[in-house]
Amino acid sequence: MIHSALAQSTTTPYRVTLTDPQGHTWHVDEPAAKGGQDSAPNPVQLLLSALGACTTVTLQMYADNKGIQIDHVEVHLQLNPEAGQNIIVRKIVLKGDFNEEQHKRLLKVAENCPIHKLLTSNIQIQTELLI
After folding, report:
1. What letters, b where the CB count within 10 A reaches 16 and e where it falls short, cover 10-19?
2. Residue at 34 is within a domain
3. pLDDT at 85
4. Where is this region: Disordered (predicted)?
5. What is the pLDDT at residue 80?
6. Are the beta carbons of 5 and 19 closer than 8 angstroms?
């Protein structure tokens, strides 16, 4: 499956409108300190939210499939690129009825969510400038 999104500038400085072929629309903006309006998540927050959403959905799907009761999933994510290393810290809080063995398996499942796999793989970006 090929995934796609379109990013387009707007008349508001540093605010970007994003769309996909299914008709969804969302936005990115920079904080006021960087000249934006802080009207939407910044690009790094958007990246982190993709990992958090994917982790949550992957855990829910696995639990549903295996009959494990998960009442709530919470994924806290942080990235501090100014520290000189690109390390994403992910802390997962699970609430539900599961044993220690299932808990260990759920951690492995989280590490296998598609966005986690993508971010830890050898990513290549092919860029072409069209005028």
Report:
1. eeeebbbeee
2. yes
3. 83
4. 1-22
5. 84
6. yes
List own/partner pairs for 66-70 with CB under 8 A and 24 or more apart.
66/102, 68/96, 68/97, 68/98, 68/102, 68/106, 69/96, 69/97, 69/98, 70/94, 70/95, 70/96, 70/98, 70/106
Range of the domain at 11: 1-40
CA angle 34, 29, 114 (to 5 degrees): 120
For residues 65 and 86, membership in a common domain is answered with yes
Domain annotation covers residue 101 = yes
pLDDT the model gives residue 112: 94
**CA separation for the pair 37, 115 (Å, rounded):** 28
10-residue averages of pLDDT along the chain (131 residues): 96 97 98 96 97 98 95 96 85 94 94 95 95 93
Judge if 53 and 88 occupy the same domain: yes
Domain annotation covers residue 29: yes
Give CA angle at 114 (26, 100), nearest 5°. Answer: 115
**Predicted pLDDT of residue 113:** 96
**pTM for the whole structure:** 0.92
Please report where in the chains the tokens 């300190």 appear, as a residue.
33
